[in-house]
Design goal:
Elements lengths: L1 H17 L21 E6 L6 E2 L5 E5 L16 E2 L4 E4 L2 E2 L2 H6 L6 E8 L5 E5 L5 E5 L6 E9 L5 E3 L10 E12 L8 E3 L8 E4 L1
Antiparallel strand pairs: 1-7, 2-6, 3-5, 3-12, 4-7, 7-12, 8-11, 8-14, 9-10, 9-13, 10-12
Length: about 200
């Protein structure tokens, strides 16, 4: 009995000796965050397909923004002329000078200005469905906008860096395809209810 008692006491001593090695050591963590400038989108100019004739059979009018390239030196007061305007079917495009002479607007891309934190990337969302535009005098007559495009690769870009002439700014253009009906009623057409088409931006 004595021998067993001594063994138990010895084990108790070993446990008491090692106990301080298992004690926890406190440490303080740190937190860090950055608040950046909110991203904003400004409409500089509206989408304009100029003037044209519909003809029998109809067709399309196309303003494709994907071939414009970067607009790094764009002045927001200057519209982006639709010099690459094309048509299909029976649609006949009118000369730009003739359109101006008669008081009409020449074809222009919709242009937008993005502002936010310098150097940050962003993505643009454009309509992926049809947008209706109606005759201003007879709203029962309408046309459809589809196939929206931008001049940004993959509809994404980056705001100008802090050392750029206009830090935290980027311009881009939007185009689309207009479907014209056979013998489409002449007149001025505008987005239904004046709402236009939705374009949004967000940080990557």
């Amino acid at each position: 009995m004595k021998r067993r008692y001594k063994i138990l006491v010895a084990a108790g001593v070993l446990l008491a000796f090692h106990a301080p090695l298992l004690a926890q050591t406190p440490a303080n963590g740190t937190a860090h965050m950055s608040i950046v400038l909110p991203i904003h989108l400004i409409v500089d100019h509206s989408l304009n397909f100029g003037s044209f004739t519909a003809g029998t059979g109809g067709g399309t009018v196309i303003l494709n923004a994907s071939g414009l390239g970067p607009l790094s030196n764009q002045n927001p007061d200057d519209p982006i002329q639709g010099t690459n305007l094309t048509s299909t079917g029976a649609v006949g495009l009118l000369n730009t000078d003739q359109t101006k002479k008669n008081g009409g607007n020449p074809p222009e891309f919709a242009s937008f200005e993005v502002t936010g934190e310098p150097g940050y990337g962003f993505t643009v969302s454009i309509p992926n469905g049809p947008v209706i535009i109606r005759n201003g005098n007879q709203p029962d007559y309408s046309m459809i906008l589809t196939a929206f495009t931008t001049n940004l690769t993959g509809n994404a870009g980056a705001l100008a860096g802090p050392l750029a002439p206009k830090p935290g700014t980027r311009y881009f253009a939007v185009g689309a395809t207009l479907s014209v009906g056979s013998n489409q009623l002449p007149g001025d057409y505008i987005s239904a209810d004046g709402d236009g088409f939705a374009v949004t931006v967000q940080y990557n």
